[in-house]
Structures are given as C-alpha cells and as structure tokens.
Amino acid sequence: MKLRIFLLVIVLALVAGVVYRIQNQQAGDDKRGGGNRALSVKTMPVAVRDFPRVIDLPGTLEAAQQVSIVAQVSGTVLQQHVQEGDAVRAGQTLFTLDARPAQARIAQSQATLAGARAEAAEAEKKLERLSPLLQSGYISRQEFADAQLAQEAVRARAGAARAELEAARLDAQYAQIRAPIAGRVGRIGIRAGSLVQAGGEPLTTLVAPGALDVRASVAQQDLPELVAARARGKVMAEVFHDLDSAARAQGELVFVDAQIDPTTGAVPIKVRLAGPQPALLPGQGVRVRLLLGTEPNARVVPEAALQHAQEGTYVYVVRNGKAVVQPVKQTRSLDGAYVVEGELRAGEPVLIEIPQRLKAGSKVKLEGTRR
Predict the structure, then answer these.
(1) Which of 13, 45, 284, 303 is most buried per CB count within 10 Å?
(2) DSSP alpha helices (H): ranges in the chain?
(3) Per-residue pLDDT tens for 149-168?
(4) Considering the domain boundaries, does residue 122 fall inside one?
C-alpha cells in the first residue's frame, strides 16, 4: 500500500515538472515575439499621382440605325423575296402582299369618279341654261340656288371618289413592302401564305451597317460628376467585353436623358462608338467606362492594403519600425487601386499582407531587409 502511494507521488511530480517547463517555454517565446522579435511584412509605398475619374457601367449594344419593317396594309403574304441575313439596298422589295382587294377598290373608285364627273358636267350645263332664265325672270332665285347646291354636291362626290382612288392606289403600292434603308435583314417572323395586319408585329428588322450605340444608365449619385464633366467638354468612353479584358472600342457620350427612369431610379445614357466594330454585335452585353478626367495628387494604395472594421476603413503603415493603424476614407477605385483620404505621406510603406500575430504597435521589418 505504501509502495503504491509512493509511486503515485513520483508520477504526479513528473507531470507537474513537465507542465511547468512547457509554460515557461511558451512564456519565453511570447516575450521574445512581442518584445525583441520583429515580424517580417510585405508592403507597398503610398503613391501620389494623377488618378483617372471614371464611371463603370453595364450596357447593351444596339445599332445606331435600325428599322422595324411593319406592314402598312393588311393582307396575305404572296412572296418572300429575301432571307434572314441578306444584305439589301434601299428600295429593294422584301415582301409582296396580295394586292387584289386594293385593285378592286381602284376599279370601283374609278367608276364612281367617272359617274361623279359626268354628273358634275351635267350640273354645270344646267346652270348655264338657267342663268339667262333667271335674268329674264322666268325662274325664281330659289330654283337657281337649288341647281347651284346640286352642282356643289356632285363636285363633293367627285372629290371623295378621287380621294378613295388615291387611297386604293397607295394600298396597292404598300402591297410591295420595300426596304427604307440599306442594311442586313434580321429574323423573319412570317412566311408566304401568312396573314399580316396593318401596323401589327414587325415582319423583320433591318440593321444598317456602321456605327453602334451602347445603352446604359447612370446612378443618381454619379450624375452631378457626369454633368460637370460634360460642361468641361466631350466625355469619351471605352467599351469592354468585361472589365478584366482590354478595351474593344472607343466612343463618345452623345445623350443623357433629361429625366430619371422611375423603374430603375437611374438616368439613361447613350454612347456612340467610333467606326464599325466587327467583333461587337447589336444586343451584346458589354461594360462601358466613362472617362470624366483625372484627380490630381491623389493618394493611392492597393486594394490589399485596405482593412475593414466596424469603425471604418484603415491601413497598417510602417512608422519607426512599427505597424501603426491609420484610418482612411476611400473615395474612388480603378483596376485594384484605391484613392484614399487620411494622414498618409507619399512613399510610406503600407502592409499588403497582414500576419496573424500582427497587432497595432508590433515591431515589423520589411521583407528583404536585415534586422
């Protein structure tokens, strides 16, 4: 029994010794790390330079000149003269509608007009015969006035017949649906034998070759800066497939709407691209960057340097060999670089990688330098 107690005391003493030694070793490591040992850190200097002022927006390409082809008269499509994707010239026939109803109206109007002209000639001769009889007193003034009224009525019927004839002739012409501009035929929504309605759904679209426009919308908070830039002169733009790629086209801001779109809360704009762009097509989604000028002497840091907390944004800056917390306010960004406001001097190193053990006031050394 005594032997067991003796052995248990020895084991407990050994365990206590090991725990004490580990605790002393950790305390020594903490003391060396927090006091004498400097953390190696990666930094980049604060740059002071002119910084571009831009607005990046999503946009959609559309043809600068695009026409929807709509039937002006109702009728059955007799013939389709073009195919989707065909290049056509201005005035070329695209579709032919059944013109027989219009031709029948032409014949009817011609007959009505001929009858009205004959009646008008007879009424005029009657007035010529009655005029000397009125002067001699053989007829009353009322009888002569009735003859004049009959003549005016016949003339009115002749005028209506002429108008109906012209309308019928126009409808016959509209049965030949022609291209109003030169361009390329889009998707065709009808085929021969289809019945189309006047002013109904477009039969197809014509897209003119040449310039493209980008439709986009600017947020209300960015509008004052855009207006100020337009007051200074032309506002140019760059167009990208996405912002990670090189610019595909250059353009100019040509339109800013005078009112806010109530559905989006933004202001519609239009950018016209310079010259043909074979790699870009109407309907394609792009990114458009409006170039509003430059901000001189801006303090610029990389995105990796910015740290975020409930109190706001800050960076770690190396001063006198220590990592110092410096609050900043970011005002604009472009391609991973941020303009900030705060007490930063040009060339000061800011940390772009934050070690886990780093605290405000920790001793640090820049990577590549000796202690």
Answers:
(1) 284
(2) 2-31, 100-136, 141-174, 223-232
(3) 888 888 888 888 899 989 99
(4) yes
